Amino acid sequence: MTGIRLALAALCATALAMTASPAHAAEAITAEVTLELGKGGVLHVTEKISGAGGEIKRTFFTRTRHDDTSDRLYQISGVKGGTLTGDVLTTKDGTVEYDVKGAVAQLGDIEELRWFAVSGWNVPVEKATVKVTGPGMIQNLSCFAGELTSAIGCTAASMDHTGTQADFEQQGLAANQALTVVVGYPKGASGGTPILERRFSLLGAFALTPVTGGALGGLLVLLLGAFGVVYWTRGRDARVVGHESSAIDGLQNGHFSPPDGVRPGQIGTLVDEQADVVDVTATIVDLAVRGYLLIDEQPRQTYDAPDWLLVKKPAAPVDALLPYERALYDAIFEGRDAVLLSQLSGSFAQHLGKVRDALYADVVRQGWFARRPDTVRGRWTTVGVVLCVLGLAGTVALAWFTTYALIGLGVIIAGAGLAVGGQYMPAKTAKGSAALAHTLGFRQYLLSGELGHVPEAQRVELFSRYLPYAVIFDGVEHWSRVVASVTGNGRPADNLYWYHGPAEWDLSKFAGSMRTFTTTTSGAISSTRQFRSL
Length: 534
Known about the structure:
alpha+beta; single chain
């Protein structure tokens, strides 16, 4: 019984092998292809497929490398006898028709038709024949078989006696291999052109060409012109300053005063065109010197943080204060008669913006600026930032779709230049330039520390009045020593009329106290301190 079973199994295996061989052989197909090149370079293709025995698929080669920067595209349309999904054609035994665009290119005096007549089948092609007709006499022909980039010729290639039809044949193509046919016609025979698509690369996107170079040059000219305008508006300040400086150098008495009626906060805003925290600090000192408040240094232990009590002077004529001074005065006291400087920390910041706004409005009211400097800077900075954003978006788009990305980069540079140059756009009027020149002369006098011919009896009051300006010019310690030297000279002395120290304090310690006070005040009214340089 066992022998019978083994014999039956062997017979079944033999029968299966015999039936399987014909089925495997049926997977190889034959293809008869006809190519008709018409006007406009449209190639009409007709394929007769046989031997499939079922559904088969073909993946068209619709994109090939053209050169270092571009790909060549082939567009398939009008499919009949099959279903095209993306680049994949699904069909079976029978006839398939479709049109191809992009298969023709003009090469010198030749119009070349190049098409992958048989390619991308998921089954082997036992035999393929291709017949090509076109709108003119054939100038040359060739064919390649195997992989897409193969340089191996096909089995046979010829043309008929009329020279208008080319015939190609290939035996035994493996699955996914191709038979590529190339036929040359007279230039312009069909008028077709290749369909090219730029291949993205950073090097190509930012290529320097006459177009991109010219655009960049134009933007550079615009930038230089803009900076020229800035120089002109700023240059008039320099000319006025130079004229005034020569007059200042001629002073013989060593005494120079600030511009008439100009407050320290105004000078600080005039100098750097910004209402800084240090301008507000100097104004607090100025209010004390002018008798609106008293600065009382509090006693402390060795490791205690320094603190000062700001005391309102009851008889002070607050109605005479300028708008920004009144805004500061009200923000400090808020209905109380005295406040510790440490109590302003964290609560004063909400009022700082109002004080700075009033300062900006004041310098315009003084006629030093035609427009608020912060508004001018903000406008130019906004334009620059918007231009940078547009340039960035344009650079991305140009880099992706063209080779003109350098133009977008130029727009970004222009926007950045406007944003930075906008900080220098606020221009002083002639009156403001003259006030600045006078101010710089006064600064020179303060930093020199020369007492001149001021009577000693008037020096405490006069030099105290100049101290807030020294805060603006970052010379507070130097000028504080000048003030202290008038009366103290290292000996115990009374307090100043606007600044009181704790017990055992005298004017010899005033410079250190004043330096600490200005630093602490700037920290109390704002989280950061903005330093300036002239």
